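User: I'm new to structure prediction. If I give you an amino acid sequence, what do you actually give back? Let's try with this one:
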Amino acid sequence: MKKENRIEFFRRLSAQNPEPKSDLEWTNNFTLLVAVVLSAQATDKGVNKATPTLFALADTPKKMVALGEEKIRDAIKTIGLYNAKAKNVFALSCILQNQHNGQVPETLEELMALPGVGRKTANVVLNVAFGQPTIAVDTHIFRVSNRTGLAPAKTPDLVEGKLNNVVPNEYKLHAHHWLILHGRYICKARKPDCANCNVYDLCAFQDKTA
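Assistant: Good question. You get back a string of structure tokens that encode the predicted 3D arrangement of the chain. For your 210 residues, that looks like this:
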């Protein structure tokens, strides 16, 4: 995609949704981190059904440690892979309490050192909680980047690198959410809703549905 088209691409997404927000529900940096960890291989909607109960019991690392792994597991049983996720949430809570004074760290390296936190999760937390212009490449962003020709590459890490190079600086803070929401609701995997796409004419996809 040409530079002028990339600028127009994000200008339109920005005009349509100037202040995009995550679909996940959270109340502080810690609950955001836990929600993102729980969302791996699960839908935001499914996570949002389970977390109100969990966060009512424990919305800080100290409270989560006191709650214990078994009760964490009971609270998130409706989420896929709940056994492993409960173990990770308990373990990362222990580390935050013991090594970070109960605070969520603000660096990629420190976040990725936590159990259950990969690069994508860390980038989401840095972007949403701390306002850093990071781009977390999930399945939606990977698809949109390749399908539209915005930043085609074979792996999520390569797509992330390309996006960091090609997204105009003035749009980097919200690029992550614009691309996720576009992929989730418009540029869907099985049948993209091209008729309602406001970047239709900028997209390189050959099999458009309209």
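You can read the tokens as a compact description of the fold. Here is one thing that stands out. DSSP finds eleven helices and no strands in the chain.
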